[in-house]
Specification:
The protein has helices at 2-5, 20-28, 49-58, 87-94, 97-100, 105-110, 135-140, 153-163, 188-205, 208-236, 239-255; strands at 35-39, 43-45, 63-71, 77-78, 81-82, 121-123, 125-126, 130-134, 167-178. It has 260 residues and is of the alpha+beta class. The chain has two domains: 2-184, Spore Coat Polysaccharide Biosynthesis Protein SpsA, Chain A (Alpha-Beta Complex); 188-255. The strands form two sheets. Strands 1, 2, 3, 4, 6, 8 and 9 form a seven-stranded mixed sheet that branches.
Amino acid sequence: MLKKEFPEVCLIENKDNVGFARAVNQGVKRFRADFILLVNPDVEIKEEAVAAMYRFIKEREEIGIVGCKLLFPDGRRQHSCRRFPTLTVSIFEVFPVNLLFPHNKWVKHYNYNFEDFKEPVEVEWISGAVLLIRYKVFEELKGFDEEFFIYSEEMDFFKRLRDRGYKAYYYPKAEAIHHHGASTQQTFARQVDFYKSLHRFFKKHYGTTKASLLKAFIALWSILYAGFLLSRWIIFRRDKDREKAKALASLFKWSVGVNL
């Protein structure tokens, strides 16, 4: 349909899912422009949003990337700007303390106190649903790290961008509707991928010690939760519990270094 209705579009068709990072890098290699606009397939960009982001970043050479304000389909704001995760915040994410105590001081700090910014503000990283990137910065960073198949690739990109001295800005005057999770078809197996990618981020940017500590907590959580799910499956015979337990068993084997 895309080829037929929009023949001017350059469509790259991969036989397999190569992951977000590699797919973006493939696309960027096919053209040359001053800026790159990345948009998830589950996003509707509001009128003038891209133009507004472009005007903001164009004359500010120190800014390497800009993200817009994201909204749920019902108009509620999606919090999309965050600091880089600490070990404490990541452990809370794993267990997950964040769901039980969403406004603890560590999570609030990580999420900029969940503030609804009204004016442009410099942040550490932004959700990758809609991003406008300066091409020369993307080229300097050699694009996204393709070792990240899914999750944490944009966080890694922002970290490398800031380490090079560039700034990242959240621009709330531009808005987009994000049908959150639709593009990744959220499953429990995807959550497992999230933890693996988070560990890769820690190892790359924070070193082996912190990454190993995080991995140990992932192992503890996975075996405890798998045991709970199996117990529940024995009683209620729900297939979902068994499938989740299998995914957690796989995560546990990975976290303790057992080859699958």
